[in-house]
Amino acid sequence: MKHSFLVGAGLAVATVLVTPWNAVAATSQSHGPTATPHVTASAAHPTAKPSSAPKASKSPGAHRSSTQQADPDINGCDFTETPTMWTLTASCTATATIDIPDGVTLVGAGHTITVESPFSGAVVTNAGTTMSMQNLTIQGTNFPSNICSGSLTGVLFTNASGSVSNVTVRGMTRHNGCQEGIGIWVNATGAHQTVTITGSTVSDFQKSGLVANGNATVDVSGSTFGPPDLLPGVIGQNSVQYSRGAGGAFTNNKVIGATSGRDDAASTGMILFEAANLTIADNVISGAGTDVGILVQDSTNVSIARNDISRAPAPDGFESHFGIGVFVDEDSTQVGVTGNTFSGWEENRINAPQDPYILTTTLPDGTVGKAYSAELLAIAEDPASDLTWKVISGSLPPGLRLKSDEAIVGTPTHVGVFRFRLQLHDRVDDTTSSRDFTITIHPADVFLHVTKTAFPDPAAAGQPVTFTITVFNGGPDTALGVTVHDQLPPAFTGFTWTCSATKAPSRCSRASGSGPISAAPVDIAARGTIVFRLHGTVPAGFSSVRNTATVTPGPGTDDMAPPADGEATVTDPVGPALPLTGPDLLPEVVGGTGLVALGGLILVPTLRRKRRPGSRAS
Q1: Total-model pTM
Q2: Is the pLDDT confidence value at 546 over 80?
Q3: Looking at the domain 444-575, which fold is it?
Q4: Is 360-442 a domain of CATH 2.160.20.10?
């Protein structure tokens, strides 16, 4: 696409006089198809203070006193004054510029100052080196379009610092092609100045919503600039302008641009001309047919990050000849473009390469034994981007891993603070970005309770016996790596065991075995249970068996249960070995009636009477 256009930048390379009915005062240079855009800034000189209407007969400074003064009239508006504050008592129509004394805050109290033809100049300006204002509306109205009668500005800081909070400026327009009509103008031609603008709105302006010009830091947040007074085919407009060394932080604002409707002059959402040390971040920049979202010319050390830069179709009656999201000229240096999203543009970026951007800035903490999932958010301009992640330094917490679909998942197994760096790679454009992260893994909180039983009770020497150990976790977290101890007396040899679990993710590391059960750690879900059963034969020589089971939580686990809950003891009396025959009865496992219990076995015998010597069968 060929880009040869002029931008109505609200400034002049030299002293350029206002040219009524014309947005530009220069001629576009012709370029071949591969040439970069030729951008010429032209209009009223930014360092010239606008002329004002004649001052009122009495000096505003004469009203300052050590005590509150009731309702003095200043150029058509009534104020209650103190040495540090002027409070507007009612809405009014100003007949001339209202000069705010040094160090005074103008409080609008929700009222409106209106100006109308033949007013010219600034509605409110500073008379000293500092000025602030809040809760005020400035409204222009009834200006004819057939004259250019000097400047028209809502709020003007000239070589002064201060603040603007919750101020609305509307209607700074004469509805024509004069390079005038500015909502808020910060103009610093000498010593460095700082102005802060918050929660304010500027709209329906002829040239610019905000101009920050010269040796000034202008920080703007939570404010809206635009839309301008729509003048199809008449003038190039800039909703926000930083120029001649101005910089600062322009963050979390809304900028609404427009189209000039011309093929020789472009309107912009934001224009930077010789700006320096400026951050433009987390803004929404939009507009119907906006010619250029952000135009950067002859500027240095500019960061354009995480903005939503979009463009809707031009309104009826306008022709849109451009459509560039971000344009950076070749004379600008140290301009970073990262993490912005674009939609609706003919070209998203010109001379403004953008790497993929990691939106995620922090990751949540985790808990040992508790499932972990954290989404990793990133953006890339190309919808077909193929984004992959990898750890390039440090390490993830044990038990966690990177998923291909941009997430960290798993179940942490160790307590600690884990620091690492993730790299995002766009394999389509072969570009990368990286960010440092920290994940803190906390101990699991569990409540372990153990019980133990023996069967049969009493047991019999030489007969089977089963010890059952049940461990319950009252939560609230899963208990990982729990060790259950049960030390049988040395004479109890040949015992085997089984393990069963209820309620996932409870699990046994081994389903069965022999030897100490402590060699088979278990995981127990909150409100879950693990059961060990030890099977063997009671040796001779014991009158009773006293056996104790204990439970130990795994690493990274805080057991909130009292110590008594972690131990259980059972005493099982042991009787003499049961005889297999008696003088009159002999069990046979061949069916019949009657039950005989031998340890854990239930026999169903048929009873036969033994024949005594010399007797006959009957």
Answers
A1: 0.66
A2: yes
A3: Immunoglobulin-like (2.60.40)
A4: no
